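Protein modeling request. Please complete all fields; requests missing the sequence field cannot be processed.
Requester role: graduate student
Desired output: 3D structure, token encoding
Chains: 1
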Amino acid sequence: MVHHLAIAAVLVCSSVCAQRTFVVDAANGPGTSFTSLVQALAQAQHGDVYRIRPGAYLQAASTDKGVTLVGTPPGATVALLSVVGLPSGRAFRMADLNVQLGFDLVSGGFGVLVSGCQGTVHLDSLNAAGNYTTPLVTVKGSSLVSFARCNASASCQDSNLVVTDCTMHCAGLAAGLSVSGAVSRVHVCGGSVSGGAWSSTQASPGIQLGSGTLTLRPSGTQGLTITAGTASMFGVPAIAGGTVASLTIDPAVVLVPKGGAPAISGTATFTALPGLDTTAAPLGGSITLSMRSPPADPYALFFGVPSAPVEYPFGPLFVDLATLAWFAAGSQGATGRFSLGIPVPNDPALFGKAVGFQGVTLSNATSALQLTNASIPVLR
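Delivered output (380 residues):
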């Protein structure tokens, strides 16, 4: 296990350029490099790391660089942060930050905007700094965006989105998660998604699925619950599905409609899906990986640099094949769940890097292979 994680460290480091580290501090305390994100990102180069001290960073800031933003306790608050046009082969990472809704005359209201990114974008442990009536994170036309352990609503248009163990809620008439665009591929694993309500007559579903493909499953440690907003005079489904959308749901997912509405407006395929998640990833500590699958089914686990999904008959692969490394294999236990610890090297060069974990199972009942979802923690 340790041997393979050492390999992982080399692989992750090899995927980025030289790293510069800066301190962003609105209070201009000792060691400050910049007092605003606008200043910091204006000179950013691929591979830069920004440690953001507590404070409010609410001016509109934008980047097309593969950089890392990590908040320091007790937390900084950002708004109107745009990642636009990130090139292929680069990765933007953001972790441990509060996100506040801001308003831009061109783009409208958002906290974080990811648009037109051919590289990958990874959001870990972001927390909504309020109860908002529009989606806090907007994703458009991007190859791969991942959420892990976030508390934030989102909209996804024509993008690949992976959500693991998140709480997604919108207060007004927006759904906790909205999906649109024929090429959207969204995977939600563990956590909860809930819609808001404006009054006793107006409420939204937990998920609004206009078009694209949506897959829902529990994770290794958490169930998944989709809940409609409450409108006492009208029924509201947990998931409002469009006629051109594709929806696949593990039967263990809990769907909570309101007011006598059906759980889903639209059609869905129900099938058992293996689920996987990971804890936060401290340098010098360990990641706990947990997996849920049918008892006695064989499995194998692997990791590598996250990449835009490649579709196979047994599911999408979210790890770059050139960096993929196997690190565990066996048969699932009688409970259908297992966990294992994965040591993380105490290497400063790994700070802010993202690692993709995924698994594959072989069904004893059908002899079919199935890929799990991906879990993508940011090392820090």
